[in-house]
Write a structure and sequence with these properties.
single chain; alpha+beta; four-stranded antiparallel β-sheet; three-stranded antiparallel β-sheet; 30% helix; flat
């Protein structure tokens, strides 16, 4: 509007109109500008990822090849075989089942063979248990010993149970086995120990 003194006021220009016009609502100057990633950067990131995967795969394959070669060399030099054990004899010299427990005595002979030419075994004391249908009816042990190369060792021990107390279910199981087996018992001999192995100068 023209003022009385002939000058033009600029208040309308300084203060925006209310409500805002459509041009002000859709003014894009305050919005962030979308800048898409250039194709060269995407291709570079993909190539780096593929390169890392390739080198990782090659490294794993190299490790597997080295392990296989080391195992083959070890086999050719030492020809390792597991030791084997066999029960030479198991004689029952005494067995008496009461209403509260069992008295038993077994003479047990075990034969241990080491077929290796360059590998030795060192055994801690061997604990022996005789079980019948899961019921422990005797315990014993073998002393610790060194099992040399190409060696056969015979071990003997007495397995016994002096008045070992059993519950009613265990006694019933043993009586049932004695009746069904015509005075015999199914037996399981269990041996537990720790073994050290010496290969050349290395002892595990």
């Amino acid at each position: 509007k023209a003022a009385a003194n002939g000058t033009t006021t600029t208040a309308a220009a300084a203060n925006p109109t209310f409500p805002p016009t459509k041009g002000q609502l859709y003014n894009n100057t305050t919005r962030p500008v979308y800048r898409p990633q250039s194709p060269s950067k995407r291709r570079h990131s993909r190539s780096c990822c593929c390169s890392c995967c390739l080198w990782t795969t090659l490294f794993i394959i190299l490790i597997l090849v080295l392990v296989a070669v080391a195992g083959a060399v070890f086999w050719v030099i030492y020809r390792p075989h597991r030791p084997n054990f066999s029960v030479s004899s198991l004689q029952l010299s005494h067995f008496h089942l009461t209403s509260t427990g069992v008295n038993s005595k077994f003479n047990f002979t075990l034969v241990a063979r080491n077929p290796n030419k360059k590998i030795k075994f060192f055994y801690d004391p061997i604990n022996v248990s005789v079980l019948s249908d899961g019921v422990d009816i005797g315990d014993g042990s073998f002393p610790s010993f060194e099992h040399g190369t190409k060696n056969t060792t015979t071990l003997k021990t007495v397995i016994s149970s002096s008045g070992q107390s059993l519950d009613a279910t265990q006694i019933s199981t043993l009586k049932s086995d004695l009746k069904n087996q015509n005075g015999g018992l199914p037996l399981k001999v269990q041996l537990n120990t720790k073994v050290k192995v010496k290969v050349g100068g290395l002892k595990t």
